[in-house]
Amino acid sequence: MMNDATLRKIDLNLLLAFSVLMQERNVSRAAERLLLGQPGLSAALRRLREALDDELFVRVGRGLQPTPRALSIAPAIENALSGIECAIRPPEEFNPATWQGEFRIGMCDNLESAFFGPLAARLLQLSPGARLIGIAAEKRDAARRLDEGVFDFSVSVHEEPASWHIRAPLFDQVSICIYDSAQLGLKAPLSLDDFANVAHVTVSFEGNAATGIDIALGSTGRSRRVVATVPRFSALPTALRAMPAIAVVPESIGRCMAQLHGLTICEPPLSLPADPVTMLYRRVDQADGRVRWFRRLFIEVANEALEASGCCVSISRTAA
């Protein structure tokens, strides 16, 4: 068995010189292909002969004849060089028009309502053989499910990422008020007292009513009355159409709800913090042609959807 000291004497240049000599069987032509002078190639061959303790090539007339040892190791060396070439060759450009398979995206339901439909429609145009799979995802488990391969990337308000993840900024999600003006009998803009005194419906996956809104109201010496809490944004429109109440929701889904259900929207009468919506994906997928194309497509579609709905924000220029 070859020892470590011998292996250290054999580098990629020597293996490449051996491969070209096997093909050309002529030092001059091999040196020309390798962009080496004949002395340089002869020195490389000498080092390889010493490392392998075999003549490898013997001169026959004007050419070279490989020894039995050279013939026996040539296939393995060719396979190794071919593998290296494949590994460092630039990846082929992804072609969505001919690709068949799934694109998987993780989103919470408010972002899903705003972006999933336009994304599915665009994907059908550009990649008719593909299927879009939406996965319900919360920020608390997005990183774990990403590592498990549940989706290609997640769009949410993500926590600090691990070193093997990339968190790309998308947009700051501001909040707006939404209500049924026929039920509530109030006209926009709302006063701070109206906002505090009217009944509120909140959205919480875990059933928690208190949010940053309560903290902001508390700083003004006011509080609000929460009469109902639902786990999903999809339940809000029917609830607001049925009672004189108001909800504070992300602008992207609030504008969609207003258009679909004839609800009224307005800005909150107090300053509320914006949530940074980001895209989370694995660092190993950064250069993957398929996933890179899918990320760029989402960014394009999401930016158009935000603009079409009248949102005051747009996708960050530094996204993905």
From TrEMBL:
Entry keyword set: Activator, DNA-binding, Nodulation, Transcription, Transcription regulation
Show where the HTH lysR-type domain sits. Answer: 10-67
Q: Name one GO molecular function term.
A: DNA-binding transcription factor activity
Q: Which InterPro entries match?
A: LysR-type_TF, LysR_HTH_N, LysR_subst-bd, WH-like_DNA-bd_sf, WH_DNA-bd_sf
Per the record, the similarity remark reads:
Belongs to the LysR transcriptional regulatory family.
What name is this protein filed under? DNA-binding transcriptional LysR family regulator
Organism equals Rhizobium pisi
